[in-house]
Design brief:
The protein has 138 residues and is mainly alpha-helical. The protein contains 5 helices and no strands. Helix 1 packs antiparallel against helix 2, helix 2 packs antiparallel against helix 3 and helix 3 crosses helix 4. The longest helix is centred in the middle third of the chain and has 24 residues. The termini are far apart.
């Protein structure tokens, strides 16, 4: 029987692999004729405004940067910052004082689910260790 071992470095690899698969899928779908009427290519449905393309590029760069800073900042801080940045970037009317606590809560919930239920080792920092000791010593 073969056993799969989760390592702290495995999470960023899964994020990059998923991103590469999705980008490949978009490229392949762009080559196929569309089944919808009125559009010839998949890319016709992507934003064409310069500002929208800029925001989409910054969004993609933000998540690539997320993988880069994940080992340094740890899962909680990196995920909270990336989620906060993504929501405020993509929703121009978002209220930062509502998005920030939501991003922190999202990071905490995902952290607890990954560590407690799925037993995934995530990259950590001092903040992750402090939150783990606080949560699991209750």
């Amino acid at each position: 029987m073969r056993m799969v071992v989760s390592a702290a470095g495995g999470y960023p690899i899964w994020i990059l692999t998923g991103t590469a698969v999705l980008i490949s899928l978009v490229l392949v779908l762009d080559l196929l004729p569309s089944t919808r009427r009125g559009t010839d290519r998949f890319s016709d449905n992507l934003p064409h405004e310069t500002a929208d393309r800029w925001r989409l590029g910054v969004f993609l760069a933000m998540w690539i940067g997320y993988v880069a800073v994940l080992p340094v900042l740890g899962f909680l801080l990196s995920t909270a910052l990336a989620t906060f940045g993504s929501v405020t970037l993509l929703d121009r009317n978002s209220r930062w004082w509502l998005v920030l606590p939501g991003a922190v809560l999202f990071s905490l919930v995902v952290d607890v689910i990954f560590r407690s239920i799925f037993f995934v080792l995530l990259p950590g920092s001092f903040l992750d260790a402090w939150v783990d000791s606080l949560l699991y010593n209750l």
